[in-house]
Specification:
Helices cover about 40% and strands about 20% of the residues. It is of the alpha+beta class and about 130 residues long. It has one domain. A three-stranded antiparallel beta sheet has the order 1-2-3. Strand 1 and strand 2 form a beta hairpin. The chain is globular, with a radius of gyration of 16 Å. The mean pLDDT is about 80.
Length: about 130
């Protein structure tokens, strides 16, 4: 799949953050499926004092059921919400301080852990 088509499909997914309530949902567009989880984190920087965050797994393989990612995404949300002042990791441009950078690194580590888990899952289907 070309990068242009993939980018168009990914932009389609990100638009759905405004149309869904918090929680899990599946989106299918053309030949791409995604498993998505929207959640809120407290933030004094955001209107309403909370950030709306969405984590997504994009699935190109037709044989993979997006529902199989529910527990992984739910676990990610739970761990992300446990990070103190997690909102700071989403706003590095505002406070270029060590606290914001530390939070950003924790989010990045959590994302990396999720990617490693996803790689392990994808290898299992070939065994």
């Amino acid at each position: 799949m070309g990068d242009e088509i993939l980018g168009e499909n990914l932009n389609q997914i990100s638009r759905y953050i405004d149309y869904h309530e918090k929680g899990y949902f599946i989106h299918e567009f053309r030949n791409i499926k995604s498993a998505n989880f929207i959640f809120f984190v407290a933030s004094p920087l955001a209107r309403g004092n909370y950030e709306i965050v969405m984590i997504s797994v994009v699935i190109i393989d037709e044989d993979i059921d997006p529902r199989s990612y529910f527990h992984l995404l739910k676990q990610f949300v739970a761990e992300c919400k446990q990070i103190d002042d997690v909102y700071k990791g989403f706003h590095l441009e505002i406070g270029q301080n060590s606290s914001s950078q530390d939070v950003y690194e924790k989010i990045k580590e959590l994302m990396h852990k999720m990617v490693l888990y996803l790689n392990d899952i994808s290898l299992l289907k070939y065994i």
